Amino acid sequence: MQSLAEHRKFSVAPMLDWTDRHCRYFLRLLSGNALLYTEMVTTGALIYGKGDYLAFNEQEHPVALQLGGSDAGDMARCAVMAQERGYDEVNINVGCPSDRVKNGSFGACLMAQPEVVAASVKAMQAEVDIPVTVKCRIGIDDMDEYHAFAQFVETVANAGCDTFIVHARKAWLQGLSPKENREVPPLNYPRVHQLKADWPQLNISINGGVKTLDAVKEQLNHVDGVMMGREVYANPYLMASVDKEIFKEHSTPLTRREIVLKMQQYIETIDEPGFKPWHVARHMLGLYAGEAGGRIWRRYLSQNGTGKSPDPSLLLNALDSVETAQANVAAFNESKVG
């Protein structure tokens, strides 16, 4: 059985409105080893909200909760909740640059307050046995020197945190939208590599702009792990090669067809008010990316997964449409050869 540190060699980023429990169940079918993260959940939602923000499927393990907050007492209370529910890790969000996060005094703005993050780490670790980790940027606004970044890490590491996931871009808290902050500030991989060189005892994962497993392997020459986000969401089947390519396992991955059948079965097990197959299918739009029938797959799901009377056999019927298109392409190609 692999340790959590080993699972961190490849992880899927916490993505707001994307990496919900349905998405994570889907991604787990593709890789048994990748570490999965929840969407960010705030301490306020967990303590005062009426919904169950900690629900997940046992099949998702290993899975980490990403937590947004800055009050050490609240963070510790929520870490206990996460451990009691069975999460494998709790991660502190020090990277999200949205105004909503900034106004709540958590997210990327906390990079300017390392002592606040350190206090949360201490309080959380005093109450739970699961790892407490931090996801951060390399800087914010005019705080854009390696010294300031290293000082943040040193302060938090001295409080007991030994694992950092670093988005290798700084964040502009003024003037850029959250989307722009994922794309406009330039990537600075060497700064993260330098952090690992200076702090070899820390577990350092890198995030941002990595789009292929070859690029993952290159990064693993410099850091302990790689976190991918948007590319996994757009082209999820790349994860079918993660266990072999990154974790050196020889198991045979599920085919796209097998995944569709399992996800249809999953949909049929859900009995919740207001649930629609689209709540699952929306995470699967990219399953056939780059394949014949990929556009048909996306269009069928989008057109038939929503509305007042959604198709209960949505995935199966979409699969039929794709396989019919693929058979037609194969027959046409065969006729040309003949």
TrEMBL record:
InterPro entries per record: Aldolase_TIM, DUS-like_FMN-bd, DusA, tRNA_hU_synthase_CS
Presence of the UniProt keyword DNA damage in the record: no
PROSITE patterns: UPF0034 (PS01136)
Organism: Salinimonas iocasae
GO molecular function, one term: tRNA-dihydrouridine20 synthase activity
Stated role: Catalyzes the synthesis of 5,6-dihydrouridine (D), a modified base found in the D-loop of most tRNAs, via the reduction of the C5-C6 double bond in target uridines. Specifically modifies U20 and U20a in tRNAs.
Gene from which the chain derives: dusA
Domain of life: Bacteria
Family indicated by similarity: Belongs to the Dus family. DusA subfamily.
Record's catalysed reaction(s): 5,6-dihydrouridine(20) in tRNA + NAD(+) = uridine(20) in tRNA + NADH + H(+); 5,6-dihydrouridine(20a) in tRNA + NADP(+) = uridine(20a) in tRNA + NADPH + H(+); 5,6-dihydrouridine(20) in tRNA + NADP(+) = uridine(20) in tRNA + NADPH + H(+); 5,6-dihydrouridine(20a) in tRNA + NAD(+) = uridine(20a) in tRNA + NADH + H(+)
Pfam family, one: Dus
The name this protein goes by in its record: tRNA-dihydrouridine(20/20a) synthase
SUPFAM superfamilies xref list: FMN-linked oxidoreductases (SSF51395)
